[in-house]
Structures are given as structure tokens and as C-alpha cells.
Amino acid sequence: MAKELVGFESSLIFDKMKNPLFKTITRLKGGEVITKTVSFENYQKLLEVSSKEVKEKYRKIPKLPKYYHSGQITDKADTYKVSLFVPAGKHQYIVDQTNEVFNLAFPSLLFVLSVVKGVAQHDSCYALKGNDISDLSELYRYPYGHVSTSGSICMGNVSKRVGEMSNADAFVENFFLGRDAGHYYVPGEFAKPKVELRELVGKVDKKGYFPDNWLIPHKKGDRALTVADVL
């Protein structure tokens, strides 16, 4: 195991032939001291390598989007992975068959996107209980009709183009603007009331909130699927 560095010193000295040398003193945690003498040329190479490593190690963090929870970036601004957490609340909801528009209550939602060249190539949505999130938070099925039992999203004709990470929340806004045709919905598989989708929407609209105890858990084998499993 590498020891923790607590100090480093260097000084210019000369050998008997008046050639420049650098004396380095490295101090490690625990009191260990390492002294070395290196040529001027080797010292320059060491600095060049160290400078290159620092440049490669650090990369500018992009502006973060609304709802940001976590992300992974590449050297291309329009290719990345991001997760967005939307606390429980009301959003627009359109019933495709009847053209009814609701300001409908949703449970907390986690969107997980893999974006390539500015377009969401892989996207999923999960419900959560409460308004907090951690890696250990358990995930539940999205209760309405345009997300599959595995979490995959059906956006219909709504655009999946989001551009750079700073604009990733546009995906969430587009999601709520979409029309729900109920393609995935099966009574009792997405929410505990075993009723048709339009009836479920009516029940939630009347309550004004989505009850956490109506959510159906996602499973990974014999245990609950968690946030850490999908990031």
C-alpha cells in the first residue's frame, strides 16, 4: 500500500565537475524520509511527466442540469451518462385515447439516461417512495402506461435529443409532455389498485397525490432493486 506523502523539497546543487544536479527530499507519513540526487535532465523529464499526468487526470465538469443526481462524462460533451431525480409532485399528463389533460400527481422518479452524440440511446425510469434518494433507495415500477415493467421508456413521437449534459433535463420535460397510450399498462402490474389505466388516473387525480403504498417493487433476484443497481 502506498504511503501518504506529507512533504517534498528540492534544491539545486553541483557535482565536482560543476554539473547541475537536483537533490530531492520526500517525506512520508510515519516519519520516513527518502533522499535522491538526479541530473538536471532527469529532473526536467520528471516534471514533464507529472505535468502531463495532472492534465490527463483533471477534466472540466460540465454545467449540471436541473434534477441532476449523478453522471459520468467522456471527452465528448454530447456523450455521457446521467441520472435525474424528480421529487414527487404534479406534472402534465395526457391520456392519448381521450385527449384529456391532467395536472396529475406522480411519485418521486429516477430517470437514467445513456446519451450518445446528444441523443438518449438507452433510457429508463423508476419510481421511489418519499422525496429522498441514496444508493440504497429501493426502486418501484413507474405506475402509469408509458414505461415497461423493466423500466424502459416509450416516448412515442417525443424527441429524445437532449444535446449536452447541461440540457439533459429537457428529456424529463419532454417525458411529461408526451401522450400516454398505455401500451405497457396491465392492471395490477404497475400499481396495486387492479384497475384500468384511466380509472387509476381518476383515482390519483381525486386524491391529489400518488400513495406510496400503491407502488409495485422492482426486484433483482430475491431482493429489491436499488439505485446503485441501475447507475
Short description:
With 231 residues, this protein is of the alpha+beta class. Helix content is 18%, strand content 34%.
Description:
With 231 residues, the protein is an alpha+beta fold. The chain has helices at residues 40-57, 169-177, 197-207, 227-230, and strands spanning 5-14, 20-28, 33-39, 68-73, 80-86, 89-95, 100-106, 108-116, 119-128, 179-180, 219-220, 223-224. The strands form 4 sheets. It has a 4-stranded antiparallel beta sheet with strand order 4-5-8-9, with helices on one face. A hairpin with a 6-residue loop joins strand 4 and strand 5. The protein folds into 2 domains: 5-57, no CATH class; 68-230, no CATH class. The protein has 4 helices and 12 strands, in the order E-E-E-H-E-E-E-E-E-E-H-E-H-E-E-H.
Task: Indicate the overall shape.
Answer: elongated
Largest sheet: 4 strands, antiparallel
SS content category: alpha+beta
Low-confidence segments, ≥5 residues, pLDDT <50? none
What is the end-to-end distance?
Answer: 29 Å
Radius of gyration of CA atoms, rounded to a whole number: 27 Å
Strand fraction band?
A: 25-35%
Helix and strand run: EEEHEEEEEEHEHEEH
Name the helicity range.
10-25%
Number of DSSP E strands:
12
The figure for the number of domains is: 2
Which whole number gives the mean pLDDT? 86
Number of helices: 4
Lateral strand order in the biggest sheet: 4-5-8-9
Index terms:
2 domains, three-stranded antiparallel β-sheet, elongated, four-stranded antiparallel β-sheet, alpha+beta, single chain, about 230 residues
Mind sketching the topology for me?
Layout lengths: L4 E10 L5 E9 L4 E7 H18 L10 E6 L6 E7 L2 E7 L4 E7 L1 E9 L2 E10 L40 H9 L1 E2 L16 H11 L11 E2 L2 E2 L2 H4 L1
Parallel strand pairs: 6-10
Antiparallel strand pairs: 1-2, 2-3, 4-5, 5-8, 6-7, 8-9, 11-12
